[in-house]
Please model this.
Amino acid sequence: MARADYPQPVRDLIEELRRLPGVGPRSAERIALWLLQSAKAQPNALAESIQKAASGVASCPECGFFATVEGCPVCSAHGRDTGQLCVVEQATDVLPIERSGAFKGLYHCLGGKLSPLDNVGPDDLRIASLLKRVGRLPQVEIILALSADVEGEATANYLDGLLGDQDCSMTRLAQGLPAGGDLEHADALTVSRAFEGRR
Model:
């Protein structure tokens, strides 16, 4: 006797939801059932929003941030400081910096970081377009806002080597203790960088 299971469309929905980051089998099943059974759920509106975002949002060819047919909200903004170019790994790294209000310059999203173990080399990142932008921005300050992990450090060192003879200056974001952080919980590298970046 065959075991009862969800109909195929429900199983397909669960499988698609499982592909989302952080969504396991049970969570995917709960979300699928909520979408199908809850009076508050609006699955058609959700599907339409996903479709609109997938077809209407692309990477800005200039900076790599999210853009629509109206353009990139960063590149098209008036009054940005063209003397500063903040290099980040992903487009999602732009918003935390923007929300801080501490930076008013331009951005360049690399689309990742160098990682030989994951077969990510220089040609897989937006490094060539970075070099072209730097050539068009005389005496620009390049601010590297990359991860403090091994891959981020390797990417920063690679960019430093490439841009060393360009008409630009390079800086890195200071790294150290977070606001409200305790010294007793900090690792040696964090404490070391906190001392190096003191002011």
